[in-house]
Write a structure and sequence with these properties.
With 131 residues, the protein is α+β, with helices and mostly antiparallel strands. It has helices at 2-7, 16-22, 67-81, 96-104; strands at residues 27-34, 37-47, 50-58, 86-92, 108-113, 123-129. The structure holds coenzyme A.
Length: 131
């Protein structure tokens, strides 16, 4: 299911093997549902007291109904229960919906990784305190 949801939003997509190898004891994942249909997911990794968002996506037809924000709020709670005191992520500079989403839930832009992606696009680094 995670692979199907990932494929609907990313190219290249992570296949099932890639996702299974990602789901270790240090990662946590949640599915989000709209009308009983799996419509989005978030995967985070916990390292010591820091959490990182590895991926988040909502199916194109299900976007802008609040699921992305709900998934993040759920991930915050899960990260805190696992001992994290902050969360960070990287996002492509041009990904306006994602940047707006992160800012709307309290993330602050703390840095840039220049030409981070394979297409040479910069990544913006965002961080949010969880305490
Ligand atoms: C980013 C993404 C997960 C947002 O999911 P979503 O369910 O549509 O988000 P929500 O409906 O919870 O929106 C929450 C806030 O995000 C912002 N937002 C969401 N979509 C937006 C858009 N198209 N344009 C501008 N802001 C947007 C708004 O601030 C919104 O708050 P508001 O509804 O009060 O205005 C979704 O667009 C997606 O799956 N994109 C493709 C995958 C991706 O880019 N993932 C992030 C990689 S780092």
């Amino acid at each position: 299911m995670l692979a199907q949801l990932h494929k609907a939003s990313f190219n290249p997509a992570w296949d099932e093997d890639a996702i299974i190898s990602l789901l270790t004891s240090s990662t946590m994942a949640w599915l989000g549902y709209i009308d009983d249909q799996p419509s989005g997911f978030v995967i985070i990794r916990i390292a010591a007291d820091e959490a990182e968002i590895l991926s988040i996506a909502v199916l194109p037809d299900a976007r802008q109904h609040g699921l992305g924000r709900t998934l993040l709020t759920t991930a915050f709670e899960g990260a805190v229960q696992s001992g994290a005191i902050s969360m960070f992520l990287e996002v492509a500079r041009s990904n306006e919906p994602a940047c707006q989403l992160y800012e709307s839930v309290g993330f602050a832009h703390i840095g840039v990784r220049e030409r981070y992606y394979s297409n040479d696009e910069d990544a913006l680094v965002f961080r949010r305190s969880l305490v």
